[in-house]
Amino acid sequence: MTKDYNIEGVLIKIPLQYDVRSGKYIELFPDFTQTPVYTPKGHPVMFTGEDACDYAVEIPYGKECADCGSCRFYRQIEGTLLGICMHERKRRY
Asked: How far is the C-alpha of 7 from the C-alpha of 31, rounded, in Å?
């Protein structure tokens, strides 16, 4: 079973696993750093909780980021824990 997301034109299928303790299906997000996925415009898709990269800049400017979700270059996709890194150095042309 999977949950499908269309992230700016790229279809991502996230596997679901039933969790007995919570009684819910849990999304099993892949490691996007090991297996990158890019939008048609070349922006990498990232998990919100992924460790921040060397280009990360926290909001407000100047502080260190702990993860992608706290970076000013990260654009969260509504309704999911996925987003897009908008930093030009991470973009694939």
From this structure: 16
- N- to C-terminal Cα separation, the chain: 33
Tell me the chain's radius of gyration from C-alpha atoms: 14
- CA distance to 7, 9, 58, 62, per residue, from 90 (Å): 17, 18, 16, 19
Pair 91, 42: CB distance under 8 Å: yes
Average pLDDT over residues 15-35: 96
Contacts of 26 (CB under 8 A, 6+ apart): 16, 17, 18, 19
Q: Which amino acid is at 55?
A: Y
Q: What is the pTM of this model?
A: 0.87
Decide: 16 and 5 in contact? Cβ < 8 Å.
Answer: no
Q: Give bridge partners of residue 16 from the DSSP assignment.
A: 27
